[in-house]
């Protein structure tokens, strides 16, 4: 069989770049742990000797790391001065935790998830994945850091006002459940903004519950209760005016049951605010038109689909599995009669107003 040498070489290069990207995740995580991106931002253009003096770290190791990061195009290099620097754009992504583009914690999550790779051959044979707690506490912390921009800066100002009449009701005082509340970032933001309302965060992950309780203690708000779902489930007495789920449905083994539980918990005039990952209904569309598909399918096998398959007969929706088409179909089957996609969306998520 004749082989196109150029195509083979191009494919080999593609594979080598994938391996290089994996190495970069580990080495960039080390730099983030040591605060090197922020240190370089503070110091300005520096040689490795100057950077070693500024940081108190070993010059030879710093030199190799700086060169690697320049090759990865995460740092800038000036051959005229032998100095390294970090661009303003890179600072937004790698240093500024209040930036909507901040993604450095993704390196930490990637490194935590390497232990999950060891389990994948077993998962392929048995069908069973890992739940969130199987990844350890660092996974919960990393995901909290990755996902906290929207709840901190946009939930109150932009998203809740899109829900019909909801802000006025929150000001007067209602009951709100955040199901799968994670570290409680959104829950606490809402509780601080609306002190007359009562907020309940439901979570099954012990590591996430621990982080939520720590965050609640620091916030010192009195209108929030953190609930361990292992001990107390979501009530089925139509007692909640608002239920929120933020990137939850695609993670759970039994989403049909979750939707049914939410429907039973909501008052007849209540609202479910559902956020989930933006995706297309077909794989072909995701392959061709979703620029994040490569990342999301990888994340799915290591975390999201794994969680959704962590119990026998789990549905396994996966990271890209709860798209708008699926959401409309599943909510209708669960007894919801109204479904509206909100105007606000971002590169990662779509937001839906769903009502009984």
How would you characterize this protein structure?
This protein is α/β, with parallel strands linked by helices. Helices cover 50% and strands 16% of the residues. It has 18 helices and nine strands. The strands form two sheets. Strands 5-4-3-6-7-9-8 form a seven-stranded mixed β-sheet, sandwiched between helices. It has a two-stranded antiparallel sheet with strand order 1-2. Helix 3 packs across helix 4 (59-71) and helix 6 packs antiparallel against helix 9 (137-146). 37% of the residues are buried. The mean pLDDT is 96.
Largest sheet: 7 strands, mixed
Global structural class: alpha/beta
User: What is the overall shape?
Assistant: globular
Determine the fraction of residues in helical runs and give it as a percent range: 40-55%
Give the averaged pLDDT, no decimals.
96
* Structure annotation, total helices: 18
Q: Which regions have little confidence, pLDDT < 50, spanning 5+ residues? A: none
SSE string, helix = H, strand = E? HHHHEEHHHHHHHHEHEHEEHEHHHEE
> Which strand order spans the largest sheet, edge to edge or round the barrel?
5-4-3-6-7-9-8
Number of strands: 9
Q: How big is the Rg?
A: 23 Å
Task: Please indicate the percent range of residues in DSSP E strands (runs of 2 or more).
Answer: 15-25%
Instruction: Give the termini distance in whole angstroms.
Output: 61 Å
